[in-house]
Amino acid sequence: MRQAGLKAVVQDVDQDTLYALKAQLGITPDLSGCHTATIGNYFIEGHVPAEDIRRLLAEAPEAHGIAVPGMPMGSPGMDIGDEREAYDVVLVLKDGSTLVFARHN
């Protein structure tokens, strides 16, 4: 995120604290990734590209946040050689439903 020009404050927490934070933010297990962040009133879950975070902030939809469930190869931070898989960034609406926000690879 810092390399993409976004400010980041990192906190390393234990698993229990992380899972409690995810639950508090409304991040269900099917949306879960390995990293959880907040920016403004939104959560950012998993390996979300910086351009999608910028778009979220610019469009300011009525939503809880965006997520990349799991750890898809080729997503930011999951660059291992030339291996890539297609993945979606989902927008998590206030009612808990999701919509595809962006498609990658």
Distance between the termini: 19 Å
The domain count comes to 1
Shape: globular
Number of helices: 2
Nearest-integer average pLDDT: 89
Query: How would you classify the helix and strand content by structural class?
Result: alpha+beta
Helix content: 10-25%
E-strand count: 5
Q: Please report which band the strand proportion falls in: under 5%, 5-15%, 15-25%, 25-35%, 35-45% or over 45%.
A: 25-35%
- Report Rg: 13 Å
The main sheet orders its strands as: 1-2-3-4-5
Poorly predicted ranges: none
Pfam families: DUF411
Protein name: CopG protein
Organism: Litoreibacter arenae DSM 19593
InterPro entries: DUF411
Quickly list its features.
five-stranded mixed beta sheet; 5 strands; 105 residues; 2 helices; DUF411; CopG protein; alpha+beta
